[in-house]
Amino acid sequence: MAILRPKDIRKMDEKELEKQTRDLNLELAKERANIHIGASVTSPGRIREVRRTLARIKTIKREKRKK
């Protein structure tokens, strides 16, 4: 999954944001599980990017609710 930038996230509607959040949470859980069982990590920076993207989505959702 590509990393989403704030301008792309702002264009999405609520359903799309929820789907992206679910997908990213699942991907993060899989990566963390692989680390836990001792498997090699395919991309070490991917976990950080997924976490940042999740934070971006949550921040923009909160901004939309405040308006």
Describe the structure.
With 67 residues, the chain is mainly alpha-helical. It has a single domain, classed as Helix Hairpins (Orthogonal Bundle), CATH 1.10.287. It contains three helices and no strands. The longest helix has 24 residues. It is elongated. The termini are far apart.
Strand content bin: under 5%
Please report the first level of CATH classification, the CATH class: Mainly Alpha
The largest pleated sheet is described as: none
User: Which architecture would the CATH scheme give at its second level?
Assistant: Orthogonal Bundle
Secondary-structure map:
Layout: H1 6-11, H2 14-37, H3 46-66
Helix pairs in contact: 2-3
Task: Provide a short characterization of the protein structure.
The chain is an all-alpha fold. The chain has helices at 6-11, 14-37, 46-66.
Descriptors:
elongated; Helix Hairpins; 67 residues; 3 helices; mainly alpha
